[in-house]
Amino acid sequence: MRILVNRSILNAARLFSTRTAATQATPGATQADQKWDLFAGVLVERLPIVTKTLEPIEAKFKQMLDQMELEKSLKSNHELRKETEKQQLELLKAGKIDLDSEALKQTAQDLEDAYNEEYARFKPAPRTTEADQKNDIQSLDRKLEETLVLLVEQKLGTKSHYLLPQGLHRKGESMRQTAERTLKEYCGDNLQVTFYGNAPIGFYKYKYPANARTEATGAKVFFFHSVLKESSANIANNKVKYQWLSQEELKKQLHQSYYQSVSQFLL
């Protein structure tokens, strides 16, 4: 009786596993039959122009390091010269030495006073520009402390969206070549960038609306990283609408799921 029960259980288990394997294989086969359009996207960054303003705790820590460096440092040539001239002046007043008047024509103290006067007249360039005041999101002269990312307006279906520049892959191209061509088509030759590597740094996938799925189910976008060159000009193509946005602004502009993918490779 036990043998019959065990064989029944074994047969039922085999039948269940066979049906489960067949059920699991069906969706996989369906996905394999799906066709996806391949796109290459480009992350174009304008790196910070000036150093970021220190937070209060950072400024306090820097002040402590500067004080430690000052206490442990050796005297400079200027400080040694001041001490020597001070000793010579005391000896000269006491009549113990006789120095040529030319030797004390311009002392170290005179130089220091001239340097301090010149420094007092110096005014550093402002960290905020006219583009910041106007909130000109097409200007590269805004948010000098932060990294800006290029977005261009693109039409997906019947609606237009601001996205990272992306273009459809052509047969015979590498994905890197598609990214370079796409950027040139959108931005022209004036925008000079440096691409980092031949491998994509990010990926995003989305499905087309059901009424728009003629040949492909959706698009798979492979993103490549590039950085704007220092001497590069802005986009000269008047037909393209574009924006240079900080990471906080990207979060507000981009669709949530798209931003989540993009934010994975933003520094």
Could you explain how this protein is built, in words?
This is Large ribosomal subunit protein mL46. GO terms for molecular function: structural constituent of ribosome. Belongs to the mitochondrion-specific ribosomal protein mL46 family. It is a single chain. The protein contains eight helices and eight strands. The protein has helices at residues 2-33, 56-72, 77-93, 108-121, 130-134, 175-187, 247-253, 256-263; strands at 36-46, 148-156, 159-163, 166-168, 193-195, 202-207, 218-228, 242-245. Strands 1, 2, 3, 4, 5, 6, 7 and 8 form an eight-stranded mixed sheet that branches. A hairpin with a 2-residue loop joins strand 2 and strand 3 (159-163). By secondary structure, it is an alpha+beta fold. Mean pLDDT is 85; it is low at 1-29.
Q: Helix proportion of residues, in percent?
A: 40-55%
CATH topology category name of the largest domain: Nucleoside Triphosphate Pyrophosphohydrolase
Q: What is the fourth-level CATH superfamily of the largest domain?
A: Nucleoside Triphosphate Pyrophosphohydrolase
Shape: elongated
Top CATH class of the largest domain? Alpha Beta
As a percent range, the share of strand residues is 15-25%
Order of helices and strands: HEHHHHEEEHEEEEHH
Largest sheet: 8 strands, mixed
By secondary-structure content and strand pairing, the structural class works out as alpha+beta
Number of strands: 8
| Radius of gyration using CA atoms only | 34 Å
Low-confidence stretches: 1-29
Alpha-carbon distance between the termini?
A: 68 Å
Average pLDDT works out at: 85
Q: Helix count?
A: 8
Number of domains: 2
Which architecture name of the largest domain does CATH use? Alpha-Beta Complex
